[in-house]
Backbone:
């Protein structure tokens, strides 16, 4: 079975690295976009199996990205998990209404996020938590 492809839309390079470490350890192939415009072009190019989407992005926020995905027949079918530092209040409902499958608050819990991903992909829930620390600056 080939690895599932996950597109991560996130403007913070350290957070992108955190995703990369966690998802690689769990045998996902990762691709990245750092703003809302490249989110759509990368999604078209990579045809990922799942998308992780930040809300606070340059060039239009995550809600605009959700709208653009929804307006594209090929992209509308890809499950999106919104991962944001924004308040659950209001944002979760808005994201789900806009087509997201789940809303996770930052900082995310690794096993919660991995469980959601495998659920969305219809995979058995096998979570591998690397003992390596996330390479956030505050960890060094
Ligand atoms: Ca952000």
Residues:
């Amino acid at each position: 079975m080939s690895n599932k492809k996950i597109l991560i839309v996130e403007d913070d390079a350290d957070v992108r690295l955190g995703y990369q470490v966690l998802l690689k350890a769990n045998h996902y192939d990762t691709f990245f976009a750092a703003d809302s415009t490249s989110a759509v072009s990368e999604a078209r190019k990579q045809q990922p199996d799942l998308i992780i989407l930040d809300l606070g992005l340059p060039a239009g926020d995550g809600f605009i990205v959700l709208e653009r995905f929804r307006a594209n027949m090929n992209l509308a079918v890809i499950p999106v998990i919104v991962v944001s530092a924004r308040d659950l209040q209001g944002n979760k409902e808005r994201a789900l209404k806009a087509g997201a499958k789940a809303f996770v608050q930052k900082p995310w819990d690794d096993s919660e996020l991995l469980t959601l991903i495998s659920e969305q992909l219809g995979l058995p829930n096998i979570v591998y938590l690397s003992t390596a620390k996330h390479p956030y600056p505050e960890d060094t």
Residues 11-12, 54, 56-57 surround calcium ion (CB under 6 Å). The chain is about 40% helix and 15% strand. The helical segments are 13-25, 36-46, 62-70, 88-97, 110-121.
